[in-house]
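@channel anyone free to eyeball this complex?
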Amino acid sequence: MVKVFIYPSNSLILSDLVDRFGHEPLAVMQEIGKKIRTASLDSPPVNITPEDPKIGLKYAAVEVPSGVRGRMSLLGHLLEEAQAAILVREPDISFGCMGCARTNELINFLVRSKKIPRLEMNYPVTEDEAKSFVHKIREFLEGLTTAESGNGGE
Amino acid sequence: MEKESLVKIAQLSCGSEYSGIQKEIQTAAEMVNAEIIFPDITIDEIKVVGEEFGLQVASPDLKLMMARAKELVDGKVNADAVLIATCFRCAEAALVRNEIRRYIHENSKLPVISYSFTERTTSGTLLTRLEALTTTARRRSLLSREHQEGLTAGIDSGSTTTKAVIMKDDKVVGTGWVPTVKVMESATDALERAMEEAGITRDDIQALGVTGYGRFLIGDEFKADLIQEEITVNSKGAVYLADHQKGPATVIDIGGMDNKAISIQDGIPGIFTMGGICAGASGRFLEMTAKRLGVDITELGALAVKGMQEHVEMNSYCIVFGIQSLVNSLAKGSIPTDVAAAACYSVVEQVFEQQLQEVEVNEPLIMVGGSSLIEGVPMAMKNLLKIEVTVPPYSQYIGAVGAALLASGFIDK
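replying in thread with the prediction:
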């Protein structure tokens, strides 16, 4: 089992697929969930404090908007742990959506910079594409055995 | 003072939670008895809003802001006011922030304020802005007052100076002006001076309004009828003294610690900004310039009018660099009149670059506050904007006059 970073990082579907194929998904829900449990079960992530954007300075300089750095404080260490990654380009909002395009660009870049197996696909818009989409993810995940180095982009 | 009615503020924002400042917004809202609400939006609405709005952006949260703005304009949301907030230094967000603010302003009667935040934004920073926003929402009848009645007093407890006025039957009959040292003592001193000039005692005052940084402290101590932030009070004071109560106007107040640029319609603030990031764009820089030139601050303006700012290179974006430019220019042999003119121009240029980009500049442009009496400042503003600049009588007492004017609405209450 390897730890698989997914993008969009809050996609329940991707998270589920990774899980079904025997790997550990690295998703934002688990991070937010952790924080929510420390405050209130059904709260939004108000437990992020002004300290979090400072933690994000590890990934983006101070001139980068605080919202980007705050998000990176959650996502950054997931990236560091990642041994493989799945990136979906231009996903539909209902598929899983991250609010800040600048953070999205940075995360995609950081994933690509990391020498780990990577599956990168366009978001499917037709039924055939959707089937192929799931099939490729399955193939990719089944092919993951150890934390290989290398580049698995499509 | 009676408890204010609850105001529902629709928050249209991007990045406030991840910047860790959502709690600060909530805290500031609670302090002015306001409730922050997030208009409900479906995913389908977000998908099409870019095309409908005509502004295509990449960030989904910004699309959400546009969709929410549209809901507000269409009257589908029960809100009394709007707060638009996005991350500082995000160009995409700045575009959306400005355009939806303009859109709501032009298509609804909802008061709007916008703000760009960092993780260092605190509830204290947001308080004055939300106070002005909620006042506009809940006190339209008070703000419609055009004449002062009875005998009222106003105190403006500013960061640098404390001003007081006594007004009687629509006229200023007494003024007091002292440097702010200890907030309460300075306020008492200024009020006593104003009362002495007016020939009255505290018992004669029928209503008192207070504003400025020290407003809460002096308001409690003096049991003021009205405790109000400067945006609302200065807007009313400016259009009252400039005798321009109807129609559009722009008010600029370059203060000792921060600046205000307010776009007004019928005496009610619409779009406004408060700057305060660097003292180089404030009255403080002019004070330091006067000190370095060895003249009193009251003489700086007359010097500046005689000078040519083009002869001196100065940029007071930062007060430290501004003073360096000043010292360098004097060392190179620049004459004091040119340096004074350059200092005035530099401050005005900062206000133009940092604040006037965010409000609609409509004529008449009314300059108020102590800095408006430094003749070089309104002159520089006139030259920079190519429009007429009005400095009304008692412009340095603008906050106190506005407070006394609005306080007369509390007589017999």
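from a first look: The first strand of chain A starts at residue 3 and ends at 7.
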